[in-house]
Structure formats: structure tokens, C-alpha cells
From TrEMBL:
This is Toxin CcdB. The lineage of its organism: Bacteria, Pseudomonadati, Pseudomonadota, Alphaproteobacteria, Sphingomonadales. GO terms for molecular function: DNA topoisomerase type II (double strand cut, ATP-hydrolyzing) inhibitor activity. The keyword Methyltransferase does not apply. Gene3D superfamilies: 2.30.30.110. The keyword Transcription applies. It comes from the Bacteria. InterPro entries: CcdB, Plasmid_toxin/cell-grow_inhib. Keywords: Repressor, Transcription, Transcription regulation. Pfam families: CcdB. Belongs to the CcdB toxin family.
Length: 98
């Protein structure tokens, strides 16, 4: 489990683990759901960046960020580490509005 790993949960949906690796000893992780671009209307690009995961275009639903128990993460299917700055920028928009 690492920051910006993408996990598939039991419902078949994807979650991005956004919590710093330094805090891996905690029993919960801050995650953001990924939703199919076809299911989400166009939104603010910085708040909802798009990524390709498992061959599908997915939207980071930043406004739905939250904590879940680590045991609920499911299996890792991908990593978005190369999009670290875009994900952190989306969190900045959510938290500070900039």
C-alpha cells in the first residue's frame, strides 16, 4: 500500500489512496473515489482531473474524499504516482479553494 495507489473495492469501484506513506501505521486511509468519466458531468478540471485506469477514463471525485479502514482497500490495480501534482492540486482546491 502506497500513496496514490489505486485499489479496487468489493463494489468494483476504484479508490485512490492519498494518505502519506509516513502514516501507514494508522488503521485508516484517506481515499478519493474514481468514477467513470461517462457517469460524471464535466466539472472543474483542477478539482476533478481525469486519469486512465485499467483502460478506462476515470474522474477523480475529489469532493468525495474520506477515510476508510485500511482493511477495506481491496487489491491494488494501478498507481497514479506520476500524477502526484495533479492529485495534490485537486486536494488543494477542495481544502483551500485555490
Amino acid at each position: 500500500m502506497a500513496q496514490f495507489d489505486v485499489h479496487e473495492v468489493k463494489t468494483g469501484r476504484y479508490l485512490v489512496d492519498c494518505q502519506a506513506d509516513l502514516l501507514s501505521h494508522l488503521e485508516s486511509r484517506i481515499t478519493i473515489p474514481l468514477e467513470p468519466a461517462s457517469e460524471r458531468p464535466p466539472a472543474a478540471t483542477r478539482l476533478h482531473p481525469h486519469f486512465a485506469v485499467q483502460g478506462r477514463t476515470m474522474v477523480l471525485a475529489t469532493h468525495l474524499a474520506g477515510a476508510i479502514p485500511t482493511r477495506s482497500l481491496g487489491r491494488k490495480v494501478s498507481s497514479l504516482i506520476e500524477y502526484e501534482y495533479e492529485i495534490k492540486a485537486a486536494l488543494d482546491v477542495l481544502i483551500s479553494g485555490i
